[in-house]
Amino acid sequence: MRPRRIAGVLLRQYYLVRGSLSRLFPLFVWVAVDMVLWGFITQYLDALTAAGTRFVPMLLGAVLLWDFQTRVMQGVTMAFFEDVWSRNFLNVFASPLTLPEYLAGLVLASIATSAVGLLVMTVVATAAFGLSLAAYGAMLLPFMAVLFLFGIALGILGSGLVLRLGPAAEWFVWPIPALLSPFAGVFYPLSTLPTWMQWVAHLLPPAYVFEGMRTLVQGGAFSLRDLAVGAGLGVLDVVLACWLFARIHRRAVETGLIARYSAETVS
């Protein structure tokens, strides 16, 4: 892979965001709204419950981490969708740019946009509601790394879905985080789920993160083995997503479908 080509993909996204307020606002507006809404909810719950139960680091922290993962996913898909919406997709792959370089550029774009969202969420949650990330200790960075890997995997998977089914399939991508959140146990222990949902949850890296987060907040000791399992699943998901995207791209090129990708559906 050539770094200059990867930088070119990232530079295109930078120019798009810089030249449009409609692309800039979503980087921080919606995450700020989420923090304010859930911040007041957690404060209200703290006032209702007995001393010793801390909803701010438990629930508000969960919202922050889940939103971070969602922003990572959307950072990849939005960068991909920009080429779809502008009908620039065929031009991109007619250039010397290779598929790994293109995906690497999407990942870098996601890092940049999700970092902005994370900064805004942290500032709002800390300044307005007293959320201290120190409650998670040294495990915060590993937790975020696992969520980052899974977010990248979901972003590449969603992009592959749209590449295979056509631009109209983007509406299948937006609900993915909401559909996965019940299984991931973002706001409650996995033990509250039915058995079949727990089996699904143990295949999702975020489930290990949020179980560990609640354990730490409640003063327990988090299992490094569980974190390793979550990280391993995250790496596996990224590899599988990249493999699937490559197969879909290869089929689109071999069958000529990529040349008429501006159609609403591709079959």
Q: What portion of residues is helical?
A: over 70%
Give the helix/strand class. Answer: mainly alpha
Mean pLDDT equals 86
Per DSSP E runs of 2 or more residues, the count of β-strands stands at 0
Oligomer: single chain
Note the total helix count: 11
What are the segments in which pLDDT stays under 50 over at least 5 consecutive residues?
none
Strand content: under 5%
Number of domains: 1
The major pleated sheet works out as:
none
Structural notes for this entry:
The mean pLDDT is 86. The chain is globular and about 65 Å long. With 267 residues, the protein is mainly α. 73% of the residues lie in helices and 0% in strands.
What is the secondary structure topology, with strand pairs?
Blueprint: H1 3-18, H2 21-24, H3 29-48, H4 55-85, H5 89-94, H6 99-129, H7 140-165, H8 176-184, H9 195-201, H10 205-217, H11 224-255
Helix pairs in contact: 1-6, 3-4, 3-6, 4-6, 4-7, 4-10, 7-10, 7-11, 10-11
Q: What brief labels describe this structure?
A:
267 residues, mainly alpha, 11 helices
